[in-house]
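explain this:
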Amino acid sequence: MRALVISGGGSKGAFAGGVAQYLMEGLGRDYDMFLGTSTGSLLVPHLSVNDIGKLYDIFTNVQQHDVFSISPFVQRKKGDREYVSIDFVNSLWQFIRMKRTFGESKALKRNIRRNFTREEYNKILESKEDVVVTVSNLSMNRVEYKSIKEYSYEEFCNWIWISCNYIPFMSLAKVNGYEYADGGLGCVIPIREAILRGATEVDAIVLESEQMERSKVLGKNPFSLMLNLFGHLLDQVEKNDIVIGKLAAKNRGVKLNLYYTPTSLTENSLIFSKKLMVKWWAQGYEYAKNKHDNETASE
């Protein structure tokens, strides 16, 4: 049983799309399970129905207004570097409304339902494939995995949205009395979960460079510094997920193939730039192709 697992990573999901395209079209790999966290949860439903062309069009055209109904920051550019600063007006409005997050992501919720159709949902249910997304239950302090086989179309679309809600910058969701947020807060890449669900071979796409030791430019205001802090914490969670995944694979005799980004793609994955995402998708495809060409040549 083969599984494709995609980590969280915001706009860097475009790179994962390119890698997945090569694995599925270039190598002809079929998967029995698709598991994703955050941006990975946006990718896996479309990959499971093998509609990569549609996924490419959706993902490389995402803009800020497609994600944020109330954006907590504004984009600025200094030279070649893009960075964010707080949108004081929107943040103040959130405080006045007694909201607990700096922004709202209701636009993303609408876009998920617009792009992932009921027909595609039914097609997955009728096939052998399983699609699983990762969410964090903050009320119970635990990570939960939501399978498409266990929920209605509306419920599963909601879980995909919740998996992407990177608080405190996006919406905090409540389901059955529990409060939920981005799955990456507890599990950035669910390799171990794929193995526990019976996978005997796992292709895992990690939206971070293998060598994370690099000098970061820290934010010059409290808001951008908070983004840097959250990024640092998620990097540590991701490292632990990979170590745990490797151990689980070794203990159960599972073949684990890891695909990292060759470099650090961006300092802020909440910036959505068509030019960059088109570039990253192509890089992901070429990276996966070169990796397999090199492995074949060395055998």
